Amino acid sequence: MPFTPIRLLILIDDARGYCSRVVPRMKELLEQRAFAVDVHRIQDGPVDIAPYRGLVIGSPAFGLGIKGAGPTPELTAFIQALEDLDEKKVALFCVYQLRPGTTFDRMKGLVLELGADFVASHAYSLLRPHDMEHVIPAECMVRIR
Q1: Nearest to 132 by CA among 141, 140, 144, 123
Q2: What is the DSSP string of 65-125?
Q3: What global pTM score does this model have?
Q4: Which of 8, 52, 61, 136 makes an SS bond possible with 94, Cβ 3.0 to 4.6 Å?
Q5: Residue 99 φ then ψ, to 5°
Q6: What pLDDT, in 10s, does the model give residues 81-91?
Q7: Rounded distance, CA 107 to CA 120, Å?
Q8: Which of 93, 88, 91 has its CA nearest to residue 132?
């Protein structure tokens, strides 16, 4: 039986270009772990998530991270409009200026409310985007199979 890579979608809100600072390397690390990875920016319109076993969802976290920070209202609305999220495994990340604040609490609550299977989260510093960059790819390798 031939090997078929598991398909993942990296879905990001790329406001101010924050998430695109970490996505190319994240995609590379996931592909090194035998995933077939596509990237979709919410700014590019709707996407069909049916072909993917898992999603990696990313949001910028602006400011000090004191009053919640993220996810952005645009990303929240986009995720709420996705169909069949309850059949997916989901990893979350944010790219923050100073602190991620309650971004993960909000994002995790949102995907769990929609029935997704939460697998991991990681916050990337805008100033040091490569710190601990292996976390999401490693967790996906173990938990999305």
Answers
A1: 123
A2: SSS---S-HHHHHHHHT-SSGGG-EEEEEEEESS--TTHHHHHHHHHHHTT-EEEEEEEEE
A3: 0.94
A4: 61
A5: -150, 150
A6: 998 999 899 99
A7: 11
A8: 93
